[in-house]
Design a protein that fits this description.
mainly alpha; 5 helices
């Protein structure tokens, strides 16, 4: 993969591979988020938690859909997919009430947005990768707003 020949082609290829490695960080943020952990570990819920549960499902579906597109771009850039593992600090939080977990989800969502913004800053020279990262940031902010609304409605 790549294009062009000589030093210019080599530099372009190196830039694409670097972008692929940076995008792997975005892929890890999306695929190993606290929301994704909760979806796989099923938090303790009550019937009254249906709106929060639905918001979690939509968040994870959007993350997974976008993670697929990011993975495709990583491969297009000549890198391997590296999603990492869920952080150990997530362990056991699924046994807590969804009210508490929702607060944690908001906190982690803020952290993920900050991390995605750092990824975007590293991709200024790769417009397609930067745009995909900006899309992820926009999606994450929209879901954060939904989560904040849920918390304020339940208070």
């Amino acid at each position: 993969p790549g294009g062009g020949g000589g030093a210019v082609g080599d530099a372009r290829e190196a830039g694409r591979r670097r972008a692929g490695r940076i995008l792997n960080r975005l892929l890890s943020i999306l695929h190993r988020s606290f929301a994704a952990y909760l979806a796989s570990a099923a938090p303790w819920t009550r019937k009254t938690d249906a709106p929060a549960t639905e918001a979690l499902v939509h968040l994870v579906e959007d993350q997974q859909r976008l993670a697929g597109r990011v993975a495709d771009m990583v491969l297009d850039f000549g890198e391997r997919i590296e999603m990492g593992e869920f952080p150990m600090e997530f362990t056991g939080k699924n046994f807590l009430s969804l009210d508490f977990v929702l607060q944690e989800l908001i906190r982690y969502q803020h952290q993920d947005i900050d991390a995605m913004e750092r990824v975007a800053q590293q991709l200024v020279d790769v417009p397609a990768a930067r745009m995909l990262t900006e899309e992820a940031i926009g999606m994450a902010k929209a879901h954060l707003e939904t989560l904040d609304d849920l918390v304020h409605r339940t208070k």
